[in-house]
Amino acid sequence: MAGFEFVNVTDPKEVKKHSSKIRRHVMKDIGKARRKPKTRDRRQTKIIDEQPKIGEEDDSRPADRAEDEVEKDLRSYIHKMTTAGVRNDGHISQMVYPFEMTEDRIQLARYMIEEARHVYRPFRFAWLSVGLTDAASWNITLANAALFRSRGLGAEVTEYTESQEALKYYTLSLESISKRLQDPEEVGSEGLVIAVTGFICHDNSVGNFERMNDHLKGLKHIVEKRGGLEKLSSPFLRLMISWHDLCAATYLNASPYFKVPEGSLTEIDTGDDTMYLDVLLRDWDFQCPSLGDIMCALKATAKVAIYVNRHGHEPNFWKDDVTIARLLGPASHEILTLEGRPLPSDSADPEYSGIAAREAFRRAALIFLADVKIRCLAGARELPRHLDAFRQISRLPLVNWTVVPELNLWAHVVAAIQEDSDERAWHVAVISGIMDALGLETGSQALDVARGVIWAESIMGEKAQALSDHIDSHRRLSALSQHLQDVPLDPLLEDFDFAQLASLEASQLGPTQC
Fold first, then answer.
1. Which domain does 184 fall in, by range?
2. How far apart are CA 158 and CA 144, in angstroms?
3. Looking at residue 407, what is its pLDDT?
4. Is 489 helix (H, G, I), strand (E, B) or coil?
5. Where is the composition biased (Basic residues) (predicted)?
């Protein structure tokens, strides 16, 4: 019976106290289980079962048939192009292009393939599968190639004005799109959708999200004329539009224009991995019933973490851009479509702390997803904005962060992990206060609680140790400071004139020498 502890409740007020104690007891085991295991000698490790392939779930779990079919379409669509020779420099001249390719254009295409051997850019080859089908989109692709070539191997993407050659192809594409927008027969064509998506891809690459938002508005109008996103024939095009839509919405903290496309990874069997989170969310729903809409967003984010924990160790997982897009889309969409809640001006309002916590959870989820994007080299320009927003939330006056303290602890840990030590200090102070409410003593215990909520060890594990050390240091200094304040002053010193002593010492030292 060593693993059991019986509790005796004699007063209704004690229920919450014992509930928290039980949750912490469960959390101790969950947190330890999610820590990164020590590396074992591979020579002594036997592989019993083959790991599931990237993009697939374990055979022991029922797969969603429609989702599998869309995934097959995606893989097949991209495979048609890549096996045709795009990855092989020698077959570039044999590919089918939307217009005549001069030697200069062939050289640009060749440069794209050459750079790809040294620099990974998400969706590069997958985009070619649709970019080659339309003249305007292919001109945009050539403009990007010219831009990359002018700046050198692996350089950051800039505006087309940085290269005259890139500007030439950009202008050709823009002229084509402008003419087709005036043509009633072309305005709803899939080719036009592809071309505008090419512009949106570039906007995302250079971080011009205001212009990107304008292009997305126009694209939404064009897509609606075709009957919606699902009417597009290319499954990858649907995925790309949704991905860039969510990138812009995440940066602007706005609702996305498009829904999540079919084939996204929504049916992820979480098993027992969300057991602790489910308990906390039930507690949240009980304490803040009017703010329960955040629960679906947190559950969707937890699915991302679980999928990463299961598959993140697999070879090439972090370069499987299509799977990453299918994985992050549903969670991002759930978070960004949440209705905004204004914070009451009166801190005594019953919902004041709950609304502040809800926004902290929302921002923490976006910070977590941004960390996943960074890990797969997709970039996350939105991260500084959400970290800044979280700092402002964390500094709100008179917020009771012990409303479901474990969730608030998790949110502050997620934000603190991403911060530099100077910016982290405030978060650490808040974390320490929540730890006191939970009866936790060390940074390791606090991180074990966070690990039980939403956590990807392969991404957050290394940074977590620095935060744990920071928490422990803060708590030692706080304890020392409190101890010094509690030490009584010697009665003989209470009436002593320290100012007179300092003046006497100064006169004995004589004038200060410069």
1. 65-252
2. 9
3. 98
4. coil
5. 15-26
Return the number of other C-beta atoms located less than 10 Å from residue 241's C-beta.
25
Q: pTM of the full predicted structure?
A: 0.81
CA distances, 384 to each of 387, 411, 418 (Å):
5, 16, 9
pLDDT the model gives residue 162:
85
Question: Token digits for 62?
Answer: 């029922």
- CB-based contact 330:382 (threshold 8 Å): no
What pLDDT is stored for residue 307 in this prediction? 98
> pLDDT confidence of 176, banded at 50, 70, 90?
very high
- What is the rounded average pLDDT of the residues 40-54? 31
Task: Please choose, from the candidates 479, 397, 403, the residue with its C-alpha nearest in 3D space to the C-alpha of residue 438.
Answer: 403
Quick one: DSSP state of residue 84? I
Report CA 175 to chain centroid distance, whole Å.
Answer: 36
- C-alpha distances (whole Å) from 406 to each of 68, 79, 86, 136, 296 are 36, 45, 50, 52, 17
Backbone phi, psi, residue 123, to 5°: 70, 10
Radius of gyration (Cα) for the chain, nearest Å? 28
Q: Are residues 327 and 467 in the same domain?
A: yes
Within this chain, do residues 231 and 302 fall inside the same structural domain, yes or no? no
Q: Are 368 and 414 in contact (CB under 8 A)?
A: yes
Domain count, the chain: 2
Cα→Cα distances 164→161, 238, 366, 444, Å: 7, 32, 38, 55
* pLDDT reported for residue 484: 72
* 309 in the same domain as 457: yes
